[in-house]
TrEMBL record:
This is Lon protease homolog. Residues 574-760 form the Lon proteolytic domain. GO terms for molecular function: ATP binding; ATP hydrolysis activity; ATP-dependent peptidase activity; serine-type endopeptidase activity. It is found in: Peroxisome matrix. SUPFAM superfamilies: P-loop containing nucleoside triphosphate hydrolases, PUA domain-like, Ribosomal protein S5 domain 2-like. The keyword Nucleotide-binding applies. Keywords: ATP-binding, Hydrolase, Nucleotide-binding, Peroxisome, Protease, Serine protease. It is an enzyme of class 3 (hydrolase). Residues 1-145 form the Lon N-terminal domain. ATP binds at G298, P299, P300, G301, V302, G303, K304, T305. Its EC number is 3.4.21.-. It comes from Chloroceryle aenea (American pygmy kingfisher). It comes from the Eukaryota.
Length: 775
């Protein structure tokens, strides 16, 4: 029940990464607990002070009494300290303390310095009487002296070859107030730091980086480990050593091999492959290309990432993908300054550390989805990374020294160029990767996706057969996408289902063997297991292993994937006047879009719903104005037969899929057609889709994304497409087989659009003009 009162002098530590505190205290005196008053939340007790009370008054007496004992102790203490290296300031100070301090204080101080177990130290603290304390400490001192003598003896012969180590090591041990286990740990840590320094010196980092690292390691050596900064600095130095300052893979580029590899890995996408080969060819001829950064733009699942990976493969370089979607803090790119707790390098430096070479292919995925926030603009940071004029000395905030990124090959991908910051867009060469046609998808599925899925599921072509018609069914009835990602997933689902069947079949084949070999009881178990499913379900199906290969026909498809998700609903929806099909472009590819209109009694209001952008709303107003001004020409009337279409009439226009924001001028012609149908009471042809911007004068202007839109119409099974005259050139990009399935109507004015959209045309009635003049 004896304790030591102490004064807390300093508290150092932090709660991060885990709570770790170091307390520095000065011992005051010993005390004895008389009565424990309470234990929680912290103990409170009545205590009695045990020593240092009469320290000053009784000093002489005690010295006289203990004269011999204290003299003996003093001698040993001096002997011990003198065995240490006096050139170390701490040792010299200790020597001086021995003479200056009152003798009673010495046992406590020396016990804290010499090598003893905690148990022994506590015993000394428990010893209240000074005499007892002296007596207990002397053997410890003697033991330490003997130990040191032995150590010096054993190390002496080696002194010649390893002089410095012997001279420093034993002293260092004693300087550092050692205790058994801690000492070893500390030693290990010290060794680590020495190793780290060695690594830094032998690494090939730039001169500037080396200078910084050496400075940091010097600080590290002086730092107590308990300081949070210790771990921080160490992590930093370890990263610096790990970075591939000078390490690179050798480019092995041969255009012919690259062409073969690209062709083998990817079906179709000729334009993209051609451009990539050009890019690689220029690289081959002129090393250190400071050309633009390639940026693949297209809907998801069209193989942008996959081509990036192939480029790395052809060049024999490492590949690393950096996902930028949702990144809105520039520190994500450029790192956090090391002053922050939890600071770390940016994704670029991290990527380099991961790949371990300084010339990888970095795929900056989804540059169009970079965000912006109060923490700075990540796009601006990316500019520095991508600019060949600047990126040879890219400075990450965490590293705080320049790193040469000029050897890195950057490729970017995006779904749309619209949201890529202009400055970034300026540095990139955009290569459009449009969606695939159904035929292309079938080929991709059979050449690449199915073999890949079979391999992933451990199946062989002898076990499963997916005919082309089934693939077409999956494409048209179970997916509606520009790329092939969901097709790939559906094929995966089929393979999983087949894998179960195949495994079941194998189980059955092996079962009789096992039953023969197995013991009686085991055997019975198998039999009962077997009997159960057979009695429940189709016996024929389970009794025999399924016939190989398992053929996936439409019925199997329905069993595995459920009822078809997309049916040809187009004609159904066009069974009333006031509906037309438009073609829209979205970052996910082209889509067909229904436009619905209805009229009711009212005051000439136009209501628009379906989350429309400003441009779309303006298109609707334009369409109404044009129809109103041409109402007589086309014999369009409101419900009460008046040519003033908005007289006592409200119009409501709706663009379904209300949750998706829509904008852009290309719905103009569709709105006109839809309203013309509403006011004339005639049905729009059910197999026609259209796109085009309109003007107030009734002209049709060209729009973008024609290829994606045409593919969407083709996917939806439409037959006739009305596009602006000036978009005719875009049709060349479309595969011949798609073009053959469709009829294109080139329209330069709204008259032509309406004529093509309605069965039998939407001709102007010449009578109307005459009638008009009569009036
Ligand atoms: P993206 O990056 O454009 O979203 P991915 O590159 O991830 O798409 O492609 C999705 C999957 O489709 C990949 O498994 C890829 O191999 C496959 N794929 C896409 N296009 C093709 C193609 N033309 N030939 C072969 N496989 C393709």
């Amino acid at each position: 029940r004896i304790g030591t009162a102490a004064l807390a002098v300093q508290v150092v530590g932090s709660n991060w990464p885990k709570p770790h505190y170091t307390l520095l205290v000065t011992g005051l005196c010993r005390f004895q607990i008389l009565q424990l008053l309470k234990e929680k939340p912290y103990p409170v007790a009545e205590v009695e002070q045990l020593d240092r009370l009469e320290q000053f008054t009784n000093q002489h007496k005690s010295e006289e009494e203990l004269g011999e004992l204290s003299e003996q102790f003093y001698k040993y203490a001096v002997q011990l300290v003198e065995m240490l290296d006096m050139s170390v300031p701490a040792v010299a100070k200790l020597r001086r303390l021995l003479d200056n301090l009152p003798r009673e204080a010495l046992p406590d101080i020396l016990t804290s310095i010499i090598r003893t177990s905690n148990q022994e130290k506590l015993q000394i603290l428990d010893a209240v009487r000074l005499e007892e304390r002296f007596k207990m400490t002397i053997p410890l001192l003697v033991r330490q002296i003997e130990g040191l003598k032995l150590l010096q003896k054993t190390r002496k012969p080696k002194q010649d070859d390893d002089k410095r180590v012997v001279a420093i090591r034993p002293n260092r041990r004693i300087n550092h107030i050692p205790s058994t286990t801690e000492d070893e740990e500390e030693e290990e840590d010290h060794d680590d730091v020495v190793m780290l320094e060695k690594k830094i010196r032998t690494s090939s980092m730039s001169e500037q980086a080396l200078k910084v690292c050496l400075k940091e390691i010097k600080r590290l050596k002086k730092m107590p480990q308990s300081m949070p900064e210790y771990a921080l600095t160490r992590n930093y130095l370890e990263l610096m050593v790990e970075l591939p300052w000078n390490k690179s893979t050798k480019d092995r580029l041969e255009i012919r091999a690259a062409r073969i590899l690209l062709d083998n890995d990817h079906y179709a996408m000729e334009k993209l492959k051609k451009r990539v080969l050009e890019y690689l060819a220029v690289r081959q001829l002129k090393n250190n290309l400071k050309g633009p950064i390639l940026c693949f733009v297209g809907p998801p699942g069209v193989g942008k990432t996959s081509v990036g990976r192939s480029i790395a493969k052809t060049l024999g370089r490492e590949f690393h993908r950096i996902a930028l979607g949702g990144v809105c803090d520039q520190s994500d790119i450029r790192g956090h300054r090391r002053t922050y707790v939890g600071s770390m390098p940016g994704r670029i430096i991290n990527g380099l550390k991961t790949v371990g070479v300084n010339n990888p292919v970095f795929l900056l995925d989804e540059v169009d989805k970079l965000g912006k926030s109060l923490q700075g603009d990540p796009a601006a940071a990316l500019l520095e990374v991508l600019d060949p004029e600047q990126n040879h000395s890219f400075t990450d905030h965490y590293l705080n020294v320049a790193f040469d990124l000029s050897q890195v090959l950057f490729i970017a991908t995006a779904n749309t160029t619209a949201t890529i910051p202009p400055a970034l867009l300026d540095r990139m060469e955009i290569i459009q990767v449009p969606g695939y046609t159904q035929e292309e998808k079938i080929e991709i599925a059979h050449r690449h996706l199915i073999p890949k899925q079979l391999e992933q599921h451990g199946l062989t072509p002898q076990q499963i057969q997916i005919p082309q018609v089934t693939t077409l069914d999956i494409i048209t009835r179970y997916t509606r996408e520009a790329g092939v990602r969901s097709l790939d997933r559906k094929l995966g689902a089929i393979c999983r289902a087949v894998a179960v069947k195949v495994a079941e079949g194998q189980h059955k084949e092996t079962k009789p063997d096992r039953a023969e070999v197995g013991e009686g009881e085991d055997c019975k178990e198998h039999v009962t297991e077997d009997a159960k499913p057979e009695s429940i379900s189709d016996t024929a199906d389970l009794a025999l292993p399924p016939e190989m290969p398992i053929l996936i026909d439409f019925h199997a498809l329905k069993d595995i994937l459920g009822p078809p998700m997309y049916e040809m609903e187009v004609s159904e929806r066009l069974s009333q006047p006031g509906v037309a099909i438009g073609l829209a472009w979205t970052p996910l590819g082209g889509e067909i879009m229904f436009v619905e209109a209805s009229r009711m009694d009212g005051e000439g209001q136009l209501t628009l719903t379906g989350q429309l952008g400003d441009v779309m709303k303006e298109s609707a107003h334009l369409a109404i104005s044009w129809l109103r001004s041409n109402a007589k020409r086309y014999q369009l009337t409101n419900a009460s037969g008046s040519f003033d279409l908005l007289d006592n009439t409200d119009i409501h226009l709706h663009f379904p899929a209300g949750a998706v924001t829509k904008d852009g001028p290309s719905a103009g012609v569709t709105i006109v057609t839809c309203l013309a149908s509403l006011f004339s009471g005639r049905l729009v042809c059910s197999d026609v889709a259209m796109t085009g911007e309109i003007t107030l004068r009734g002209l049709v202007l060209p729009v973008g994304g024609i290829k994606d839109k045409v593919l969407a119409a083709h996917r939806a099974g439409l037959k006739r497409i009305i596009i602006p005259q000036r978009n005719e050139k875009d049709l060349e990009e479309i595969a011949v087989n798609v073009r053959q399935d469709l009829t294109f109507v080139m329209a330069s004015c709204l008259d032509e659009v309406l004529n093509a959209a309605f069965d039998g045309g939407f001709a102007v009635k010449p009578r109307v003009d005459r009638l008009n003049s009569k009036l």
